[in-house]
């Protein structure tokens, strides 16, 4: 698995925690920033990561901002992306099993680093169930055409 990860100024600390987790799990990744304290625009980080996931350069993408909302909205504008906004472990498992989400977003102002690591670990290690869920995901893919 190869993961692209990015944050805006509001998600730098959680991004660093998730990068450490990726290293611990032995998952290949590329960190797309940001490395600044000043305000930046989250679409400038969400779009490139989402495009790289959508075109197959990366298997999955992780985005972090203050709430996760802006990043997830921006990522979901990219055709082929199913980005889930996650702030609990149940949803992290369910979105992989049922929705085959290929990106996730979290909010640093919403959750702490320990929970963020747990969510990411579950999301990264959970497989898509397929079956009846595959038909639903395929309907989304067909609509995007």
Give the termini separation. 26 Å
How are the strands of the biggest sheet laid out side by side? 2-1-3-5-4
Q: How would you characterize the largest beta sheet? A: 5 strands, parallel
Shape: globular
Strand count: 5
- Count up the helices: 6
Beta-strand proportion: 15-25%
Order of helices and strands: EHEHEHEHEHH
Helix percentage range: 40-55%
**pLDDT < 50 runs, ≥5 residues:** none
The average pLDDT score comes to 97
SS class: alpha/beta
- Structural Rg: 14 Å
Explain what this protein looks like in three dimensions.
With 145 residues, the chain is an alpha/beta fold. It is built from 6 helices and 5 strands, in the order βαβαβαβαβαα. It has a 5-stranded parallel β-sheet with strand order 2-1-3-5-4, with helices on both faces. It is globular.
List the helices and strands and how they pair.
Blueprint: E1 2-7, H1 12-25, E2 28-31, H2 43-54, E3 60-65, H3 69-75, E4 83-85, H4 89-99, E5 103-107, H5 113-125, H6 132-144
Helix pairs in contact: 1-5, 2-3, 4-5
Task: Explain briefly what this protein structure is.
This protein has 145 residues and is of the alpha/beta class.
């Amino acid at each position: 698995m190869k993961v692209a990860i990015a944050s805006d100024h509001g998600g730098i600390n959680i991004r660093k925690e998730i990068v450490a987790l990726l290293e611990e799990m032995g998952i290949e990744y590329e960190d797309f920033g940001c490395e600044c304290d000043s305000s930046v625009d989250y679409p400038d980080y969400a779009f490139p990561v989402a495009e790289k996931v959508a075109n197959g350069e990366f298997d999955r993408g992780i985005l972090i901002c203050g709430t996760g909302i802006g990043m997830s909205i921006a990522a979901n504008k990219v055709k082929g992306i199913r980005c889930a906004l996650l702030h609990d472990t149940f949803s992290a498992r369910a979105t992989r099993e049922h929705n085959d989400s290929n990106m996730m977003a979290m909010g640093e102002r919403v959750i702490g680093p320990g929970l963020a690591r747990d969510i990411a670990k579950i999301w990264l290690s959970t497989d898509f169930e397929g079956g009846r869920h595959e038909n639903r995901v395929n309907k989304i893919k067909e609509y995007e055409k």
